[in-house]
Amino acid sequence: MPMPKQEQSPHTISQRIRMLKKIPPELLPLGLVIGAALGMAAYSMGRKFYVDKQLRLTRSSRDGGH
Q1: Does an H or E element contain 40, and which?
Q2: Model confidence, pTM
Q3: What residues contact 10, with CB distance under 8 A and at least 6 apart?
Q4: Do residues 57 and 49 lie in contact, with contact meaning Cβ atoms separated by under 8 Å?
Q5: Backbone angles phi and psi of 55, in degrees to 5
Q6: Within the chain, how many helices (H) and strands (E) appear?
Q7: pLDDT tens, residue by residue, 33-51
């Protein structure tokens, strides 16, 4: 028995754009705010790892010394 085609698996770019148009407009500001927050969090975390020289990113050796 053949499997029915699923409408949730678009294959072309135009079909994907049509799927995006089905998103309610009330959710677009929420998506923008969440996207901006995730971007700022990634930037902040990356900057902290790169700039902070006292932050340990690897384990220290267990030879008894400090």
Answers
A1: helix 27-51
A2: 0.56
A3: 16, 18, 19
A4: yes
A5: -75, 125
A6: 2, 0
A7: 999 999 999 999 999 988 9
